[in-house]
Write a structure and sequence with these properties.
Strand content: 15-25%
Structural class: alpha/beta
Radius of gyration: 23 Å
Number of strands: 11
Strand order of the largest sheet: 8-7-9-10-6-11
Shape: globular
Order of helices and strands: EHHEEHHHEEHEHEHHEEHEHEH
Number of helices: 12
Oligomer: single chain
Largest sheet: 6 strands, parallel
Amino acid sequence: MTGVPDRRIDLQFDDNRLLPMLYGEHDRNLARIETQLGVSLISRGNRLTIAGPPESADAARSTLDALWERLKQGMVVSSGEVDAALRMTASAADETARAQALAAISRPDFRLHTRRRAISPRSPMQASYLQAMQDSELVFGLGPAGTGKTYLAVAHGVSLLLAGRVDRIILSRPAVEAGERLGFLPGDLKEKVDPYLRPLYDALHDMLPVEQVARRLDNGEIEVAPLAFMRGRTLANAFVILDEAQNTTPMQMKMFLTRLGEGGRMVVTGDTTQVDLAPGIRSGLKDSLEILQGIPGITMVTFSDADVVRHPLVPLIVRAYDRRERNRRDACAEGDTAPVRP
């Protein structure tokens, strides 16, 4: 039996201090690349040999080169960054596309600086999302859970605030329960709405020390508020995020979008497949996507399950639900076209 012979590629790295971070503890990063790409990686000092099918070996070389470039620029390489590089490798149609995608994880202009960490894209679509937030005043980030829509938007807002490019960050989301009925919550108004806004607080605390978050909340540099608090305001020189926008009504969405003031920037995030509104109420996010298509200055970035950066099970869960929904729609369509029997 004949087949394509394995390709052997020898790499040599010029800074031994960075090798432990490239290889990972107990060579964990190398093992991850071997498993995902079906290659063999053998390290001897600062030399690394890749052996495997030609396409896989080339992909491994591109992945390692991108991670090495990231380390040389002073950025970390953890299991998350390795997974990101592998994800970008898998999504590329050819070697040129792969190189362009992998370059995003080490591009300085795509690095968001916060007090606690530097954040960079972990999928090609995340890179497009960061580019859109740099270029456009209004950006829609659409797609399933776990794709980093809200997290990257908060990170971008924090980086702009720390750089003095905006005066404040305003984070908002509609106070709609996800399929539950929690009844009357105890406490004052802030205590009643805080549970709905907790994901936004979590993102902030991942980027700023706790005391800084508290201080900036107190002095108004950061504001976390339910959507109902936006009415009547003009949000100038602010970076404004509306999270879970699929749970707005068309009237609420129009109200929010028209709050944008001079020097302001807005990001709207949501997943049109996870609407928690009462039956019969149209989602304001779906409505706005139809109305605002093609308007200059507005960019819409759509993520897919391939961009999920949470636990590896999450994209599989998303695909399973999407598959059932497609099957349900197909069954309904067949029912509509079936002949009517007497």
